[in-house]
Amino acid sequence: MASHSQTQRPSGGPDHSPFTVALDAMGGDYGPGEIVPGAIQAARDLGVGVLLVGDEGLVRQALARHSLNGLRLDVVPSQGVIEEMDHPLAAMREKPRASVVEAARLVKAGRAQAMVSMGSTGAAMATSALVFGMLEGVERPAIGGPVLAPLSNAVLLDLGSNVDCRPSQMLGFGAIGVAFARRVQGVHNPRVGILSVGSEEGKGNRQVKEVYHLFKQSSLNFVGNVEGIDVFGDKADVIVCDGFVGNILLKFTEGLGTALARRLAEAASSALPASAMHLLGAELSSMTNAVDLAGGGPLFGVNGIAVIGHGRSRAPSIARAVALAKRAVDFGLVEAMQQELAAIQGQIKREAPEGPP
Amino acid sequence: MASHSQTQRPSGGPDHSPFTVALDAMGGDYGPGEIVPGAIQAARDLGVGVLLVGDEGLVRQALARHSLNGLRLDVVPSQGVIEEMDHPLAAMREKPRASVVEAARLVKAGRAQAMVSMGSTGAAMATSALVFGMLEGVERPAIGGPVLAPLSNAVLLDLGSNVDCRPSQMLGFGAIGVAFARRVQGVHNPRVGILSVGSEEGKGNRQVKEVYHLFKQSSLNFVGNVEGIDVFGDKADVIVCDGFVGNILLKFTEGLGTALARRLAEAASSALPASAMHLLGAELSSMTNAVDLAGGGPLFGVNGIAVIGHGRSRAPSIARAVALAKRAVDFGLVEAMQQELAAIQGQIKREAPEGPP
């Protein structure tokens, strides 16, 4: 397994101020109806403070249904929501006080240490990039993490919107993944692999062949190419791929899990009691939808902690996303990313960006 | 579901000569020990003739353990085996009478109508390409098929060695997939999609964006981009991807199935009897290793039928591979591929190949 015992302490020294999260109360498919119970669960179970950012009336109405005794919960009003269908940058201009933007500003202003949103991934990425800024050496936020846990602890990235990546971007993903594996997962000297169609050097497409040499010469603990099957074989702690491949894999996994659960129910229902089949279906779905299981993933490469979750998240997933955000802050993920990126800076030759950023 | 009722007849007119397969008796992890029982099962259950191509002594020794009464089985001696580790083209020169090469020659000479091998995929591809020749408009063999059945009936290709594909190659995959879906699966007007990271036009990497326009202008029944989750959503009957993505997906699926089965056993073993867990594990493994379940896949784009199976295949999978080869011949797959490729020829602008073929 990828987890080792030597969990490290954050480099910036312990921060004794109580952790507060800025939670986008309007994001996700269910809005305040699920976000507010999630916030309450996080405040109660983790002892964290939660700033609920959203339409004040709606949020207070959802809060009114619960007992808030002793919980650190507050409402910060915002105006408007950036929807999944909106173009993120245009929407930020049109709705400058949208919930996700206000949440990011609370972090920037120091009123919260991290933000969490179940809303549009594009909006959270654009907001984080603009409000927090990018880390040195990174052009655009990446997403990823141990999304296949508990089937695999490997940190996969990019699973998002970075397609046709240049070698320097891929090397950056490696450094960022190492920061996550080292700090959040406590892996001592994370092994980094490139996802490809064969494990030998020279196997792969043009991109992989180019990237291979850069990784080999870098300071990363590079273990070479890994194949699709190796994602589950503990061959690497961090697996780097172009966002085109990663995003297809992520969505493919979700579809496969759902299809397997359905098929298994058909195939075995005569042999097993209904309760057992229900249990199995739920296990299968949750194991292949691990983004939801973990509550979400942190945005990588931005100068602050933003955790984005699945739009379908219910209250428990929202609480888990807050827990992940707290862990990322406690473990100094941003500082760790900065350090790992700085370590590889010398190895990245500055290439001219191709196409618009 | 993708299957429709209008199964079509082969265009070349019915062939009343009894079907005979040339079976590479030396290929696969178990050699004649599993290939021979597989051949016997195929000869008995399907009434087909089987030419077992391999080391005569070893094959006859394996045959001696069985009753062959009334079966059309024969041995064709060959010398040497091309191993998984060999470089296919070099090995073909060094072992010109290797089992897989002799099997292809039997088809070329008309002594068999199709070949089946569980040996090196590279060797089967190189041999088929050289002995059968390529179909007009195709440069290199592709692999694929409904490999995720019964979870999805979509024909996926390329899952093999075609990486950094040019648009014309991708369009060729589309035509080939249509031929398979139409003839072998009986789909009336197969819908063709491109695997990408978003369903909208304009979503994807450079390759997909380029390919999208070519598909849109083609005579294919193009339904646009499909996402990873859509592979299981009956959005397209044929899904085209670069072999880099396809091969990663194929191997990823195998790893995920194995990991899920193991994890499910841990998670549910206390709630379920051991026999039920065993059943579930087997179901899961087989459903995510559908190449093995179908016995294998046909090589696409070559001028003849060659079915290649998993090296780990046991006798029942080998018999299924023979059945698939027979079906491909009965349904006129090669002629159908030729027709579909001819139909798109006008739409393929001749590009200069990049890099060595």
Report on the structure:
The structure is a homodimer of 357-residue chains. With 357 residues, chain A is α/β, with parallel strands linked by helices. Chain A has one domain (20-347): Isopropylmalate Dehydrogenase (3-Layer(aba) Sandwich), CATH 3.40.718. Helices cover 43% and strands 14% of the residues of chain A. Chain A is built from 12 helices and 11 strands. An 11-stranded mixed β-sheet of chain A has the order 3-2-1-4-11-10-5-6-9-7-8, sandwiched between helices. In chain A, α7 links the parallel β7 and β8. In chain A, α4 runs parallel beside α5 (121-131). The radius of gyration of chain A is 20 Å and the shape is globular. Residues 1-15 and 350-357 of chain A have low confidence and may be disordered. The interface between A and B is large, with 51 and 51 residues.
Enter the CATH topology name of chain A: Isopropylmalate Dehydrogenase
Q: Could you give the order of strands across the largest sheet of chain A?
A: 3-2-1-4-11-10-5-6-9-7-8
**Strand tally of chain A:** 11
- Indicate the proportion of strand residues of chain A: 5-15%
CATH class of chain A: Alpha Beta
Mind telling me which CATH architecture of chain A this is?
3-Layer(aba) Sandwich
Q: Most extensive interface: pair and counts?
A: A-B, 51 and 51 residues
Task: Please give the count of helices of chain A.
Answer: 12
User: What is the N-to-C order of secondary-structure elements of chain A (H for helix, E for strand)?
Assistant: EHEHEHHEHEEHEHEEHHHEEHH
| Low-confidence runs of chain A | 1-15, 350-357
**Structural class given helices, strands, pairing of chain A?**
alpha/beta
The overall average pLDDT of chain A, rounded, is 87
Summarize the biggest pleated sheet of chain A. 11 strands, mixed
CATH homologous superfamily descriptor of chain A: Isopropylmalate Dehydrogenase
- Shape estimate of chain A: globular
Oligomer designation: homodimer
Taking the alpha carbons of the first and last residues of chain A, their distance comes to 37 Å
Which percent range fits the helix content of chain A?
40-55%
